[in-house]
Amino acid sequence: MPERDGYIAGVPCWVDTSQPDPDAAAQFYGDLFGWEFDEAMPAGSQGRYLIARLRGGDVAAVSSLPDGAPTQAVWNTYIWVGDADETAAKAREAGGAILSEPFDVMDAGRAAVIADPEGAVFCIWQAKEHRGARIVNEPGSLTFNVLNTRDPGAAKPFYRAVFGWTTLDLGSGEFWTLQAYGDYLEELTPGTRERTAEFGAAGFEDVVAAIRLIGADEVEAPAHWGVTFSTEDADETAAKAAAIGGAVLVAPVDAPYSRLTVLRDPQGAMFSATAFVPENKDVGRAAA
């Protein structure tokens, strides 16, 4: 696929993971996904920010833990916005909490850290030099961001007010959508909407993220944003993650259009890996 050069407002555009030991995390993800890393922080900086690349294109980053942050490793989702200050104000008015007021990240962009009304934390990104992930939807790169929530009904008005998102229920899952994104993709690749409909997923071209209902048995799981990476073989990725010090939290399982697994890296950050399996398109639909 061609490299991305920016996103439109309201679309997740970047992920990074905050880690107690960034170098050890870089070793793990480099071995797992084939990432190569470059340090983005100036010489002499106390913190680390290691940009992960595939074929020379940015895909994610590994960073030191921010000052005062819990020692738990975590993956962070960034959503592209036109104006970080304006978006933060919208989030506050809609009932969210601003955990970090908008701030400049050198010449890369302007960011803020926000929690939705249920406490799920995400970041917003007003781009300058850093244009988000250059490679997505390929093995070893980001393919989905997922809101894990116990109360989708409360989340919907918040994200609609902040980003203009609506939702799409395909029978096997519910997704966040933004019609402008589908229009953008259709303009880039004419026929996108028609091909998606022929594939049995009309409207999926508008999807910007997914919704997952936290299970009743996950009593200690907080609302949170999760990340999913693409892989050629979910079973192989799960086995490799376990072999290099990670943990398999959910063994590979068939899902709509995919086979996926939930993993945890050696320092505790959870993430998913999914392989595209077209013949699984109807998995879950009968039950739903």
Describe what you observe in this structure.
The chain has 288 residues and is an alpha+beta fold. Helix content is 21%, strand content 38%. Strand 7 and strand 8 form a beta hairpin. The longest helix is centred in the first third of the chain and has 12 residues, at 22-33.
Descriptive key words:
2,3-Dihydroxybiphenyl 1,2-Dioxygenase, domain 1; 288 residues; 8-stranded mixed beta sheet; alpha+beta; single chain; 6 helices; 21% helix; globular
Q: What oligomeric arrangement do these chains adopt?
A: single chain
What number is the mean pLDDT?
92
Which CATH class?
Answer: Alpha Beta
Poorly predicted regions:
none
| Integer count of domains | 1
Number of helices in the DSSP assignment: 6
Assign the CATH architecture.
Answer: Roll
Q: What's a quick, concise take on this entry?
A:
The protein has 288 residues and is α+β, with helices and mostly antiparallel strands. It is built from six helices and 16 strands.
Layout of helices and strands:
Blueprint: E1 12-19, H1 22-33, E2 36-39, E3 49-54, E4 57-64, E5 74-80, H2 84-93, E6 97-105, E7 109-115, E8 121-127, E9 142-149, H3 152-163, E10 166-169, E11 174-177, H4 179-188, H5 192-198, E12 207-213, E13 224-230, H6 234-243, E14 247-255, E15 258-264, E16 270-276
Parallel strand pairs: 1-4, 5-8, 9-12, 13-16
Antiparallel strand pairs: 1-5, 2-3, 3-4, 6-7, 7-8, 9-13, 10-11, 11-12, 14-15, 15-16
Helix pairs in contact: 2-3
